[in-house]
Amino acid sequence: MIESHESIWRSCLSTIKENIHEKSFNTWFKPIKPIKFESNTLTIQVPNRFFYDYIEEHFLNILKKTIYQVLGPTGQLEYKILVDYPNNPSKEQLSSKEIKNPFVIPGLKKVSIDSNLIKKYAFDNFIEGDCNKLGKSAGISISKKPGKTAFNPLMIFGGVGLGKTHLAHAIGNEIKKLNPDYNVVYLTTETFTNQIVSAIRKNTIDDLIHFYQLIDTLIVDDIQFLSGREKTQDIFFNIFNQLQQTNKQIILTCDRPPKDLEGVKDRLISRFKWGLTADLKSPDFETRLAIIQDKLGPDVEEIPKNVLEYICFNIKNNIRELEGVLISLMAQANLNNKEIDIDLAKEVIQKFVSHENKGITIENIAKLVADHFDVPVEVLSSKTRKRSVVIARQLSMYLAKNYTKDSLKAIGANFGGKDHSTVIYSINTVRDLIDTDTIFKDLVSELEKKVELSLIP
User: Fold this and answer.
1) Average pLDDT for 398-421
2) What is the CATH number of the domain that holds 160?
3) Theoretical Cys-Cys bridge with 93: which of 83, 347, 357, 396, CB 3.0 to 4.6 Å?
């Protein structure tokens, strides 16, 4: 008769209870749940990594003797450790510890963790040019020897739509391809911050840090959003150091070089500079042409070469805009039964070029917000602490940060000479209100629409 995992575990508990104090038994063994029994291996679930570590440190001998007694010399024990998984708290991660015989100390098996990588981003479809050659070459080297090159961390920086996220995912996907057992995790800085907020609320910071210790390659996107988040920076600093010291690979993306990061502690910035900083620049004409030809694939035959060249001459700084023009062009042609030619390209591309040339300034945003709140624009630069003015000023700073390329210092200068820490505080205040106040969130959405509509000629 084959015994169930519950009955086997009850037999184990009976032996354990006879050999340890009742208080220890109630504290450390009663919370354990048997999960399954297969191939002479009993799987048990423990509440967290700390729980497992304590049991292994203090009760290893009794566990070995118990498994030998109940399952024989070939008996094995595996642990399932509950982890506050970053993107799905309901998921459980299996961290297995085996006892192959009563005289062998258990060893840690690999933990299987969802990488969050986007499979379509690969080196094969990352078009190389002078603008990104360094970053791609470094990425390929890292893929072959993650954590064992001089490129650790790898900091990829550049403007919007230049391929930072694509390259980061491509590195992660190649590492997984060459090392299937490696734990590679991609996440945004915003997701990381939300994890920390959740862990603080649940008092599970240690569990979160333990989770990141299990990772072989960590990819964090948009690291500039660490700005002003001191607690997040402190925890990330801790995780960064632990991964670095154990030769785990770290890959970061940012919209600016480390030296230009504002509101980020110097000790973090210095570590970002330890490895390689790779700049992704705007692609030249030939690279832009190669990119859109690759994006089109078989559909490239549908668009005359002179039209493709016209698009590349006019859209210079942003790969996403190139894609947007192509999508709009083909949609216009299909929906309106028009031939794709230079005239249609001019019609479609007009919005993109005018947006790029017109731009949005801090002054535009201040005027728009002041009009919405029905206050003189000058009052946003005054020292008044009237609540409606303070909110309008904070909103203006938040929108200026999101819609312009101006530094925090420049934004502060436009609102009465505020320093960068005041700007950071204002931005974070708006973010917090968006998360907690639906009416305020709707107000921000309305203002964002007005800013975007102001671009349309």
Assistant:
1) 86
2) 3.40.50.300
3) 83
